[in-house]
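In the laboratory, one determines a bound structure by crystallizing the protein with its ligand and collecting diffraction data. In a computational setting the workflow is compressed into a single prediction: the sequence and the ligand go in, and a structural description comes out. We illustrate the idea with pyridoxal-5'-phosphate.
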Amino acid sequence: MTLITKPDTAHSRALVDAPGMAPVAIAKPNLMSVEDAKVLDVVKMTDLFKAHLNPGQLHFMKLLGFHKIKIERAEGMHYVDQNGRKILDFFGGFGSLALGHNHPRVIEARKRFQDEKRHEIGIAFMSQYASALAYNLAQISPGDLDMVFFGSSGSEAMEAAVKLAERAAGPSRPKIVYAENSFHGKTKGVLSITDGALYRGEFKLTDNTARVPFGDIDAVETLFRSDPSIGAIVLETIQGGGGINQAPAEYWQKLRALCDRYGVIWVADEVQCGVGRSGRFYAFEHYDVVPDITAVAKSLGGGKAAMAAMIARRDVYMKAYGTPKTAMIHAMATFGGIGEGCITAIETLNVLYDEGLIENSANTGAYLLERLEELKAKYPKIIKDVRGKGLMVGLEFHDFSQTLPMVLRPVVSVLDDKLKGSLSGFVGALLLRDYDVLVAFTEYNRNVVRLLPPLTCSRADVDVLVAALDDLLGRGIVSIVKDFVKSQVK
Ligand SMILES: Cc1ncc(COP(=O)(O)O)c(C=O)c1O
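The predicted complex, in structure-token form:
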């Protein structure tokens, strides 16, 4: 296969457009086949990424060493690269791999579905698969969270949640409250309640929003009391991108009471912390409260399908879309409730309970926190904090930019302004290079390593991670930075 010359489009257009001439043939462009794609090597992959995907992002891929790795297979807790190296996955697809990579039951359900030539599109006729998945989610969800909308990304589920809240609140209450350091997606609507200057950029966002510090109930109460135009409040139950931030049970209980008192609709974004991640199916279940609307995605698709769902209280849903006249305002998109996505999610939810993965998340998560606390006690000058719930854990380093020897500071800042003062980038790159362990970072707090492994994670996996971290941190900050710098010039 040759890369990659486009056919002479002017010539083919002339053929088609010539007056009086019927189109004679459509030349097949120089397309790659599936087999071509599988055998691309790292150099060609990098070239194509640069040419067609995101040239700027390549910079970060290189800093982390991703450009040297081609993943050939993935199973359970591990990726396997082109050299047969097994990489332990504590990144977990940002929380989308609750079942691990390629869970056999999910693969089997999907194969069977295809072999039986089942239909996919859920909006012509009624879909038995979408109906069953909606039923399952209603069974799992507490209170009267009974009405379900399907999409294919967390952003889409959150868009649906915000639109529903706005319609149910009514035109006199269009204002939406969101939290500092929130992340609800990058699509245009939810960007207005995503609190990242980088992502918001210079886009024209809606101005019917108000921002509060996360976890500050007095700020919420003051806003609700002073502004009757507030109709909804949108919060991640555990902030992921913000750095694994939690609020105490008391906060959520007071929030529920305030929402009831002022008639404000509470939207709980569980896209990252939901589907068992925190040690309960929904993180809000830890606090004995039920929101009016919630959203899940990521692991709902079992690591194999792009599935997301918004789940709402029936009275809220009916108020907004409950009549034939209003029902189509926000009916599902073309691929909403797609067949294979739904059966993948149905099997995923069954596996989650059959294999006790939510309990495992709680238990192994507690063990992970315990082991990281030991490391914190051993390296108090490096580790600032360890926090999380279940297998949603953050490891925060002290900002070391001011403690680094003067001679290293310019090198680090030249390398990347973003990684400056952020040990997590260096630690992540070296964990991968030297210990075959993959971790993630958080969007807003670059000093936090984010750990979102599959919920199949065992104590032995935790021990591997902790031993790697222990060995790496034992080198000391200066060596870590120097080793990172060396890894960039190799
Ligand atoms: C809390 C939260 N909400 C929404 C989203 C958006 O989900 P997606 O990337 O699937 O659009 C994310 C993604 O990381 C998230 O963490």
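Residues 357-378 form the longest helix (22 residues). Keep in mind that any predicted model is a hypothesis to be tested, not a measurement.
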